[in-house]
């Protein structure tokens, strides 16, 4: 081979050697500078440069938006010499709340959609940082991270961000490099925060312990994850296959038809693509049970509807849709990131450990920076105090000096100052000589010394550094953490469409004889007219509706029996009835033991521990128990209250402890006391005395005072009256109470006490079987110390056995609106002497919940 001359610029080289070295250089550049995130801040270089450039532009969350073109130009011109599309596409992704679990950029304008629509050009959109992104950049000016020259050595840029939040896990990352790729799913901030705390407190913990805290990915689009094996593989080995499914609900249409409603889809899938796939299957006649497909999504959320033929089996249709469309998709997790420039596959503990180490380094460097700054400021403050204490001499020295340099030397010589202190004295304004300013200097110096001591403690103790790490992380989690969106199911919990019920509003009706049914709300309207029972009930002479209320199909119906037992059943399991049906016996539907009567009926949406159930027994005992203790009622029921021998449960209410309670006895006594006077107890507790009973007296009813109303009292021999509840004075719980009705041989004892509003009606049931309907207008309003008026004519030897509320009527032809909260307001004490009421609760109040409804045949 002929050697090249000295002046020749062409060097002969074997092509395979050149290709090998050039490709290695290229691949490492792609790996390090483009495709893979850093394990410490979870960002690729382009994302890091965008956030840094926006910070330098002052695009804080409380500042006005700026054109995205400004951001793109800033990034291209200073830090990222690549294509503008690459920068803008990265910016767009950081805006999209369906791409990032916790977006880093706040955008204004069209930044694309989950349908796969592209964002508008960067000249049309605007952007600024989110509050969470500022946490990623916090303390960047305190020498917390290394900086490197930009591409032309004019400026510097951070090689990593301080990252107060574990961005790599909470937002995930994806990228394809040369010969390797990464695909890290997003997670819930609260769960990741708990795992970091556990790792800090137990550095030797196993990955399994962390998996119990980080349940799995939490995708911004919600949906379901079926199976936990893939999650475990990803967290232990760095690779795993995670099966995602859409969240699908079933809704019933008029005429027996059904439809599937998709409200959440798998992560990374376009909604329009799924709809297109379903349409293709229908056109190809691979699925023949679909009659309509429409997208009803709006600003309130996603909703696209798959309408089925009458008689189609929804579960089978959905199974075929999972198989043939992206309603089911797979997320191939690859937990690969850069560890100081070296790509590594990591398990969950390793990733969390790298983040912990990074934050410790940030805290150390920040503390050193702050300590140096505090020492410098304290040094200057000490010099200024010396000057203030010797101001006359300082002024004389300055006036006697020829120039600034001479004055500085003279001050240093006279007072043994440093050059920094002397220069600070020369720059001092005359306003600093006031007494107030002098006091401020002394106070500031004390604060600086205290700060220096704290910083020295931090720098001298890794335990203290870890405490600071956890304090800052806890504050961030408190600020930005939210509830999990993605539900994780084990293999044996794989959902069927029957389990994925739509939260549909239904009307629940309960008759006096205990027949219950549910009616889809949208099928009904209010009935015009009066004097007739609800449609379908006029065929039963001895029965009438006592309760009509609105609930959701996902609600839970709590049933309490007179023996103190609590039972539960989903609202959607109530029998659905038509216009001519009064339903089925609630004892049979709910599986109540034979001979048991209902003492309470409540529809509950969430079992919150700040809501409280109130219990009242015929023997005058009251008790309050938090609602969360009834969240998991087993088959066969549980004990709700421990009753004394001979006592029985009379009523159950749901409240928040802010109202008064009025209890009424058969002997004509009543007591009013605050609900909060009753202590909160466990389920097995017996309760405390609500009213003191004498001479065989029993409680016949009670009222929760929630509005301006009257208390209607009815006696055994047909006397009744209404008394304003305001006339009952508040007392301490457990007393004898006050008179509510003068009981005599002519009136007989009280048999019922109920709240009554204008328009309410009651059904009076006599021992002979006779029934009389009484309206509020028929009952006189009288004071407490009266006997009422005889309203019911009784045959000799007959007496009133029971009083039950009748569901009221509305004159408007429209469906009742939903009432919040969903929990039904209890009916108060429709009890007969010696016999527990058959049903003593009622639905939400009156004007809506007690409306009479009929099938809208149109």
Task: Give a verbal description of the structure.
The protein is an alpha+beta fold. The protein folds into 4 domains: 43-162, Topoisomerase II, domain 5 (Alpha-Beta Complex), CATH 3.90.199.10; 247-326, 2-Layer Sandwich (Gyrase A, domain 2), CATH 3.30.1360; 360-480, Topoisomerase, domain 3 (Orthogonal Bundle); 505-855, DNA gyrase/topoisomerase IV, subunit A, C-terminal (Neuraminidase), CATH 2.120.10. Helices cover 29% and strands 24% of the residues. A hairpin with an 8-residue loop joins strand 12 (290-295) and strand 13 (304-308). The longest helix has 42 residues, at 348-389. Residues 524-536 and 809-858 have low confidence and may be disordered.
Number of strands: 42
Distance between the termini: 98 Å
Q: Count the DSSP helices.
A: 19
Percent strand equals 15-25%
CATH topology name of the largest domain, in short, is Neuraminidase
- Portion of residues within helices: 25-40%
Describe the largest sheet: 4 strands, mixed
How many discrete domains? Answer: 4
Name given to the CATH architecture of the largest domain: 6 Propeller
Strand order, sheet with most strands: 14-9-8-17
Rounded mean pLDDT score: 83
According to CATH, what is the class of the largest domain? Mainly Beta
Which class of secondary structure composition applies to the elements? alpha+beta
The gyration radius over C-alpha positions equals 38 Å
CATH superfamily of the largest domain: DNA gyrase/topoisomerase IV, subunit A, C-terminal
Give the low-pLDDT segments.
524-536, 809-858
Globular, elongated, flat, extended or rod-shaped: what is the shape?
extended
């Amino acid at each position: 081979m002929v050697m090249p001359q000295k002046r020749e610029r062409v060097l002969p080289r074997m092509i395979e050697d050149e290709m090998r070295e050039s490709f290695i250089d290229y691949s490492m550049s792609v790996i390090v500078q483009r495709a893979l995130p850093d394990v410490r801040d979870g960002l690729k270089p382009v994302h890091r440069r965008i956030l840094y450039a926006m910070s330098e532009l002052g695009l804080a969350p409380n500042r006005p938006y700026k054109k995205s073109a400004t951001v793109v130009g800033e990034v291209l011109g200073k830090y990222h010499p690549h294509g503008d599309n690459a920068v803008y596409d990265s910016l767009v992704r950081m805006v999209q709340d369906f791409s990032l679990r916790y977006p880093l950029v706040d955008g204004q304008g069209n930044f694309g959609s989950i349908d796969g629509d592209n964002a508008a050009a960067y000249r049309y959109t605007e952007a600024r940082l989110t509050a969470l992104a500022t946490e990623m950049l916090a303390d960047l000016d305190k020498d917390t991270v290394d900086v490197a020259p930009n591409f032309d050595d004019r400026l510097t840029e951070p090689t990593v961000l301080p990252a107060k939040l574990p961005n790599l896990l909470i937002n995930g990352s994806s990228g394809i490099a040369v010969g390797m790729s990464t695909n890290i799913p997003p997670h819930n901030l609260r769960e990741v925060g708990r795992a970091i705390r556990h790792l800090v407190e137990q550095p030797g913990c196993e990955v399994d312990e962390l998996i119990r805290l980080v349940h799995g990915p939490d995708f911004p689009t919600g949906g379901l994850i079926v199976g936990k094996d893939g999650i475990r593989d990803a967290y232990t080995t760095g690779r795993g296959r995670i099966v995602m499914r859409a969240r699908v609900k079933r809704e019933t249409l008029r005429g027996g038809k059904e439809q599937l409603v998709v409200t959440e889809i798998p992560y990374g899938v376009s909604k329009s693509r799924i709809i297109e796939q379903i349409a293709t299957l229908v056109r190809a006649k691979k699925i023949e049970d679909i009659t309509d497909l429409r997208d009803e999504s709006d600003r309130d959320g996603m909703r696209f509807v798959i309408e089925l033929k009458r008689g189609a089996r929804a579960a089978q249709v959905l199974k075929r849709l999972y198989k043939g469309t992206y309603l089911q998709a797979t997320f191939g997790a690859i937990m690969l990131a850069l560890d100081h420039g070296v790509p590594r596959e990591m398990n969950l503990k390793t990733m969390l450990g790298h983040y912990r180490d990074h934050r410790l380094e940030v805290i150390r460097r920040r503390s050193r920076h702050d300590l140096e700054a505090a020492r410098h400021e304290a040094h200057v403050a000490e010099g200024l105090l010396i000057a203030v204490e010797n101001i006359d001499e300082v002024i004389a020295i300055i006036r006697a000096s020829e120039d600034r340099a001479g004055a500085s030397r003279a001050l240093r010589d006279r007072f043994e100052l440093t050059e920094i202190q002397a220069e600070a004295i020369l720059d001092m304004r005359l306003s600093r000589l006031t007494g107030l300013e002098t006091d401020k200097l002394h106070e500031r110096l004390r604060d600086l010394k205290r700060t220096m001591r704290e910083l020295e403690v931090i720098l001298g103790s890794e335990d203290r550094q870890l405490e600071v790490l956890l304090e800052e992380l806890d504050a961030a989690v408190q600020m930005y953490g939210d509830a999990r969106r993605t539900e994780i199911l084990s293999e044996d919990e794989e959902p069927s469409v029957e389990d994925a019920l739509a939260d549909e509003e239904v009307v629940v009706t309960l008759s006096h004889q205990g027949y219950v049914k549910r009616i889809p709300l949208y099928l009904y309207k209010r009935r015009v007219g009066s004097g007739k029972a609800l449609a379908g009930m006029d065929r039963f002479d001895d029965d009438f509706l006592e309760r009509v209320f609105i609930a959701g199909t996902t609600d839970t119906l709590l049933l309490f029996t007179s023996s103190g037992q609590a039972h539960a059943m989903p609202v959607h399991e109530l029998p659905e009835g038509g216009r001519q049906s009064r339903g089925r016996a609630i004892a049979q539907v709910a599986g109540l033991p034979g001979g048991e009567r209902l003492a309470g009926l409540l529809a509950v949406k969430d079992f919150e521990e700040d809501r409280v159930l109130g219990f009242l027994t015929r023997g005058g005992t009251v008790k309050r128990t938090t609602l969360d203790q009834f969240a998991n009622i087993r088959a066969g029921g549980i004990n709700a209250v421990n009753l004394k021998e001979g006592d029985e449960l009379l009523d159950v209410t749901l409240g928040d402890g802010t109202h008064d309670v009025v209890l009424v006895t058969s002997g004509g006594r009543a007591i009013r006391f605050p609900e909060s006077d009753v202590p909160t107890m466990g389920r097995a507790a017996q309760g405390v005395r609500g009213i003191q009973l004498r001479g065989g007296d029993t409680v016949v009813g009670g009222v929760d005072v929630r509005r301006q109303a009257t208390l209607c009292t009815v006696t055994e021999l047909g006397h009744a009256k209404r008394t304003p509840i305001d006339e009952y004075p508040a007392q301490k719980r457990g007393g004898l109470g006050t008179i509510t009705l003068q009981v005599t041989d002519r009136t007989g004892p009280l048999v019922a006490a109920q709240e009554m509003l204008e328009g309410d009606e009651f059904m009076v049931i006599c021992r002979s079987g006779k029934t009389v309907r009484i309206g509020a207008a028929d009952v006189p309003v009288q004071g407490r110390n009266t006997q009422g008026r005889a309203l019911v004519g009784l045959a000799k030897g007959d007496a009133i056995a029971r009083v039950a509320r009748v569901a009221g009527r509305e004159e408007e032809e429209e469906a009742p609106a939903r009432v919040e909260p969903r929990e039904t307001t209890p009916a108060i004490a429709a009890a007969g002497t010696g016999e527990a009421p058959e049903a003593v609760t009622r639905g939400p109040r009156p004007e809506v919940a007690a409306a009479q409804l009929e099938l809208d045949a149109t």
